[in-house]
Specification:
The structure holds three protein chains of three kinds. Helix content of chain A is 39%, strand content 17%. Chain A is of the alpha/beta class. Chain C has a single domain, classed as 3-Layer(aba) Sandwich (Aldehyde Dehydrogenase, Chain A, domain 1). In chain C, a hairpin with a 6-residue loop joins strand 3 and strand 4. The chains are: A alpha/beta, B alpha/beta, C alpha/beta. Strand 18 of chain A pairs parallel with strand 10 of chain C, so a sheet runs across the interface.
């Protein structure tokens, strides 16, 4: 007998999914007026629940509830008390962490190991971090009388549903704004569970409103005239559309968009950790990560051996049931996304790059894509330029640090970058030269509420997390 | 003594020859080789080891893992108070860890001080290995002559495995040549006995040193590289073992020779032991999941493995009174 | 005396691009007048092509200027103030002509403009300390955030404050290491042209500051859609339809846009919002291990 990991599925008994789900407006679950839609488990294609679709009437009601809550309670409440609500929410997320993790994995397809160890704990941490800011904003460097903006419209993606919700809602509430948030169409369930948490926390009605729906709901929300600020995380194309939609208004905007990060490995890198970093960089969350290290830049002198090591390592990755605690690669979130990955990888082959995947059994039902490596990729290939948002790595090589920088920066994006070398001086020089908002040196894909996150260039503007993230939700410095 | 031939150290061509000493042209070559090894990022290595520690094993696999772990134990007593009687009792347990269940595998070896090798050999015969710690264990602070005599004495008394310690003082002052030559000499003194080289990673402190010492020991002829004496804290840890396994994996890729790894000290529970097996499986593959290539140096671990085994078979937890204390 | 009847040598008012003083490639000029509508000078009317040339110059300028040390940037800004001080009389006379204000008011504006440059000169090696910090993340990592310049910024100076407003737009952009293409007040461009002559002699890296004269409505759309422009400062755009159109264009490459302020008071001590608007926060993680 050889060594085998027996399936170790997390029990789903802990979650109780409503067969139909309402909107959360003014502290109450209220039916939507649009045509409801179904959300499925991408690992099985089974319908999990029916979700309400917010139409214009519902968007109006949600914004109105947020406005009323802003005027009547939230903007008048002391920072200390606002903070207490955030602390409560943080604790409630921890208390219901297993439930949230299982629900996230069911709805999103990500491995339970990740929802349990990354998404949910960091979401709770974001509320803890920002709770403490609520009564200290005058010390944050935005003048001595920083003020909230008002009603904030937030639209979030499907790759980290609860975590992105936390990144958006925690700073908005801490700074005294009220929120209308629209989760992604395919991943509404944890946001609705979060709505229950708001009820359990006795958060004043209307401070957080959650409206579910598709792109049209998001558009109506963003365009609503009584919204003071828009915060969006998602694709660059939609981000650009939002930037156009709010042109000519006084709405403030922050965008956290796509990326095509270079993960640069020098010949003096700590190679075993670099290989782990490469794997974590692109195969974490099935590569559904805007800051994924999707372009691997290898110094030519170590390219061959590193690719060999990488392939050997990829053979140990376990693809399958996301609820299995031993699963490394879960399901692709939707058929639509799977098709996009398939299209782009096809173009990679057609353009002459060499494709490789480890042997792995793809389940019959659900949306799956084997971890994939493309070698012999050049900067001109589509797979080196376009965000694939899947478990697909493009490997390029370089000879000198200058060439590495040139290639790393040769993209309209600028969200993140990785640098692997044991030479401290080179790390600092490279970190200085790479045009990206987050630089991971000898590590990758680390997130923390105290650490600002956000991009350069077409990866968006504004930061989330840290003291810099507060600026997106405050008006203070009198402008001239 | 050491045979210094003209083989370059780096980029050894793969060879199917049985494992034998590779010597440097000069200690400069050895220094250059060790300096050229890739560094180890401690945080990354620890994160990787921790991630592997979350793997879940259940049912049949777990039974197999527990039996495999039992069969990998070097059941150890290394106390000043050891007596032939104590060693004999331990040896009986090594042969039949669970007297109530004859399907329980024997452990891999017993590990004792050199003077107690005859007592051990008398009980175990040739059914399991007898390992002796040698070379002025645990500190290694003695002349090479004393260490050689210590080794030869244990082998003559019947030890077929020698657990030597490296000269950490020499290693930490950068005198890699001295460490290397000493291992070469001890290896020669071992004759047919297998040589486990104890790095005492708790004194080497950094994972960079662990990787260097691993390579140094393998190149000098170690059959096994071993984490610790058990007398220095921390003893075996997952990150240290991970780095040693990576060295073994890379050495195999270069030379086609499989070197064993022994994690010794501090591993007390079945849960811990299984984490090590996961580490082995994912780092070097299941070819290493054999007592010939992976060992646990332990004393109390065995009883926890036995209790878990009983639980698996009977469905309920046993207590300490249901496993023997020898 | 003959001296009193001397015919003065008049200046041709040109653009300032890449450290040089070209005419508009279009060959066009427009008449700058005082507030009574009296002719002051023919001023180059920059074209879209001039704007594109300015982007090229600004990118080159950015590549050097952004690498200059903070101390050096502060010194160059200080040098601008020194040279402006020497040209004070000319600025006063320019402002008097352009804005039809008293000599005293023109002098006050000039003083404030020079002092504004000085204020930002001091920020060059300090703003990173205020905008940046280390972040106490929960794990064995050293994590720090630092502000960096955004890149090439296309700006429109305010129409009314021909020198102080202009300086208040340019200075915060370049202090952090950006390059700027600024369109001077269309109605009162002459103080900006005098300023460009100061810049040309004050160690400013070629292309770091580019000053165009002309019509923002004509020039800005091509800058707003230009792929190598990173940010827009719409301070001088008073036409809300034009502002909206430019914001829409800017979305094509996700440019940072600073909208026109409402009733700006250029005399007040600035906030840091202009400095902040054209910087990017970069966060670096590194493990801490032995």
């Amino acid at each position: 007998m050889t060594f085998q990991y027996a399936p170790a599925p997390e029990s789903t008994a802990i979650v109780n999914i409503n067969s139909s789900n309402d909107l959360f407006i003014n502290g109450e679950f209220t039916p939507g007026h649009g045509a409801p839609f179904k959300t499925i488990n991408p690992a099985t294609e089974e319908v999990l629940a029916e979700i309400a679709q917010a139409n214009e009437e519902d968007v109006n009601a949600a914004v109105m509830a947020a406005r009323k809550a802003y005027d009547k309670s939230w903007s008048k409440m002391s920072g200390r008390d606002r903070g207490k609500y955030l602390f409560r929410i943080a604790r409630l997320i921890q208390e219901r962490s297993r439930e949230l993790a299982v629900l996230e994995t069911l709805d999103n397809g990500k491995p339970i190991r990740e929802s349990r160890d990354v998404d949910v704990p960091i979401a709770a941490a974001h509320f803890f971090y920002h709770a403490g800011w609520a009564d200290k904003l005058e010390f944050a460097g935005y003048g001595d009388n920083p003020r909230p903006l008002g009603v904030v419209a937030q639209v979030i993606p499907w790759n980290f549903p609860l975590l992105m919700l936390a990144w958006k809602i925690a700073p908005a509430l801490a700074t005294g704004n009220t929120v209308v948030l629209k989760p992604a169409e395919t991943t509404s369930l944890t946001a609705l569970l979060f709505a229950e948490i708001c009820q359990q926390a006795d958060l004043p009605p209307g401070v957080v409103n959650i409206i579910t729906g598709a792109g049209e709901t998001g558009r109506m929300l963003v365009e609503h005239p009584d919204v003071n600020k828009v915060a969006f995380t998602g694709s660059t194309a939609v981000g650009q559309a939002i930037q156009r939609q709010i042109a000519g208004t006084q709405k403030r905007l922050t965008l956290e968009l796509g990326g095509k990060a270079a993960n640069i490995v020098f010949d003096d890198a700590p190679i075993d950790q670099a290989v782990e970093g490469i794997v974590n960089g692109i195969y974490f969350n099935q590569g559904h990560v805007c800051c994924a290290g999707s372009r691997l830049l290898l110094q030519e002198s170590i390219a061959e051996q590193t690719i060999d090591s990488l392939k050997r390592r990829l053979q140990t990755l376990r693809l399958g049931d996301p609820l299995d605690k031993n699963t490394d690669i879960g399901a692709i979130n939707s058929r639509e996304q799977l098709n996009r990955i398939i299209d782009l990888t096809k173009s990679g082959e057609e353009e002459g790059a060499q494709r490789w995947s480890p042997d792995c059994v793809i389940p019959e039902k659900g949306f799956w894509f084997a971890p994939t490596v493309f070698t012999n990729v050049t900067q001109a290939h589509r797979i080196a330029r376009e965000e694939i948002f899947g478990p697909v790595l493009s490997v390029l090589t370089f000879r000198t640090p200058d060439e590495a920088i040139e290639k790393a920066n040769n993209t309209p994006y600028g969200l993140s970058a990785g640098i692997w070398t044991e030479k401290g001086s080179r790390i600092l020089a490279m970190a200085n030269k790479v045009r990206a908002g987050v630089v991971w040196a000898n590590t990758f894909n680390r997130f923390d509420p105290a650490s600002p996150f956000g991009g350069y260039k077409e990866s968006g503007f504004g930061r989330e997390g840290g003291v810099q993230g507060l600026g997106a939700y405050l008006t203070s410095e009198e402008s001239s | 003594m050491s045979s210094l031939d003209n083989q370059p150290l780096a980029n050894q061509p793969p060879t199917k020859q049985p494992h034998k000493t590779q010597s440097p042209t000069s200690h400069q070559g050895l220094h250059a080789f060790l300096a050229g090894l890739s560094g180890v990022d401690q945080v990354g290595a620890e994160a990787r080891a921790a991630a592997l520690g979350t793997r879940s094993i259940k049912k049949e696999s777990k039974m197999w893992a527990i039996d495999t772990a039992i069969s990998m134990v070097d059941l150890t007593t290394l106390e000043g108070a050891d007596t032939p009687g104590k060693v004999s009792a331990m040896c009986s347990k090594a042969l039949h860890p669970d007297p109530t269940d004859p399907t329980t595998p024997s452990v891999a070896a017993v590990c004792v001080y050199g003077d107690l090798v005859p007592a051990a050999r008398e009980v175990v015969g040739d059914r399991i290995h007898v390992a002796a710690v040698a070379t002025a264990f645990p500190s290694g602070r003695a002349s090479l002559d004393v260490k050689l005599l210590d080794t030869k004495d244990a082998v003559a008394a019947g030890a077929d495995e020698i657990d030597m310690v490296i000269d950490r003082g020499a290693f930490l002052t950068g005198n890699f040549g001295k460490v290397f030559e000493e291992i070469v000499a001890i290896k020669e003194a071992c004759g047919d006995a297998h040589l486990k080289v104890i790095l005492e990673t708790g004194e080497l402190k950094t994972l960079d040193n662990v990787r260097k010492a691993s390579w140094l020991a393998m190149k000098a002829g170690a059959d096994f590289i071993k984490t610790s004496t058990g007398k220095v804290a921390p003893a075996a840890t997952l990150p240290v073992t991970l780095v040693m396994l990576e060295a073994v994996r890379d050495y195999y890729a270069q030379t086609n020779t499989r070197i064993g790894v022994k994690a010794a000290g501090g591993i007390k529970t079945s849960k811990d032991a299984i984490k090590y097996l996961v580490l082995v499986n994912e780092t070097v593959g299941d070819a290493w999941l054999t007592p010939d290539l992976f060992r646990f140096g332990a004393s109390t671990l065995l009883n926890d493995l036995l209790q878990q085994r009983q639980k698996m078979l009977t469905g309920h937890y046993s207590g300490p009174d249901y496993v023997t204390i020898d | 005396m003959i001296g009193n009847d001397r015919v003065e040598v008049r200046k041709t008012h040109k653009l300032f691009v890449g450290g040089a003083f070209p005419r508009s490639e279009s060959g066009r000029t427009y008449e700058a007048t005082n507030s009574q509508g009296e002719f002051l000078a023919n001023v180059a009317k920059a074209s879209r092509k001039d704007a594109r040339d300015a982007v090229l110059a600004a990118r080159t300028g950015f590549n050097s200027w952004s690498k200059a040390t903070a101390y050096n940037r502060g010194q160059v800004l200080y040098r601008i103030a020194e040279v402006m001080e020497g040209r004070k009389d000319q600025f006063i006379s320019d402002i008097q002509d352009a804005e039809a204000v008293s000599a005293k008011k023109a002098a006050t504006q000039t003083d404030q403009a020079i002092d504004r440059v000085l204020w930002y000169a001091g920020w060059a090696d300090k703003y990173a300390q205020v905008f940046g910090n280390t972040n106490p993340v929960s794990g064995p990592f050293f994590n720090f955030s630092i502000p960096e310049p955004t890149g090439v910024v296309a700006a429109v100076a305010p129409q009314d404050s021909s020198l102080l407003g202009l300086i208040s737009v340019i200075a915060p952009i370049i202090t952090s290491g950006n390059s700027v293409i600024v369109i001077a007040s269309t109605a009162s461009p002459i103080p900006a042209i005098t300023l460009s002559e100061c810049l040309a002699t004050s160690d400013v890296i070629a292309g770091n500051i580019n000053i165009l004269t002309g019509d923002p409505a004509e020039i800005m759309p091509s800058l707003a859609s230009h792929g190598d422009v990173n940010a827009l400062d719409l301070t001088g755009i008073t036409d809300s339809e034009l502002q909206k159109a430019l914001q829409i264009e800017a979305a094509g490459t996700v440019k940072r846009v600073r909208s026109a302020p409402v009733n700006p008071d250029w005399r007040a001590t600035p906030s840091l919002s202009r400095l902040r608007a054209f910087t990017e926060v970069k966060t670096v993680w590194h493990p801490m291990g032995m």
